[in-house]
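Revision sheet: structure tokens.
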Amino acid sequence: MDEKKKIFIIDDDTFLLDMYTLKFREKGFEVESSTSGEDALNRFRKGYKPDVILFDVVMPGVDGLEMLEVIQKENLLPDTLLIALSNQGEDRDIELAKERGADDYIVKANMIPSEVLDIVSKVIDERLSK
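Predicted:
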């Protein structure tokens, strides 16, 4: 990656949020984070446009799927990669997220942080090579 990619991580679990923020910064990403879908949507509406959003699906208030719906409906982030990072790993959960606009879906219970980092980097590389 030549220029720093902006990643926005949304998760109501502050321990995970801090851990992923640290990991992505160490890898050279510019990282912003939020603990809620509402806050994230407000930032997008004010013009914040990250390259990648890594978001939890299950959150209080506006959950990840609802947030995806609003992003699509309002066309807030047409060029942003949207990647779900969730413990919900059923096929139906993954289908729903992709139907609502997610580019990829990572089941966090099955991954260590470095693997999540690798997957996100791979998805970015694939997008850039298109």
